[in-house]
Amino acid sequence: MKAINTTRQQRLGDNIKVAANFFSRLVGLLATPRLQAGAGLLIKPCNSVHTFGMRYPIDVVFVDSSHTVVKVVSGLKPCRLAAVRGAAYVIELPEGMASATFTQKGDKLEIIN
């Protein structure tokens, strides 16, 4: 999948995997040594994430059901939690991607298969 910030005309990632069942949501990025540029994980449904067991920081974009960004957590370090009410899904991205694409609260996203 691809994730595009249509407000800023920026690509968040071209290789976004989806975690939509119990097992894939449970494992998430734990099995990855690091997140490659252009990669990410869309977790649905989801309004909170943790980085327990991870070895690297990530950017987390919380998005509501109308594909509007409701919160951005940049550089979420290992062994931390982040949550927001109203999020329908999250996109986990390589650290620095949110700021590199100027993604912020209120931006609209498009997810393309």
TrEMBL record:
Cited Gene3D superfamilies: Protein of unknown function DUF192 (2.60.120.1140)
InterPro entries attached to this UniProt entry: DUF192 (IPR003795), Saro_0823-like_sf (IPR038695)
This protein's name: DUF192 domain-containing protein
Species: Sporomusa malonica
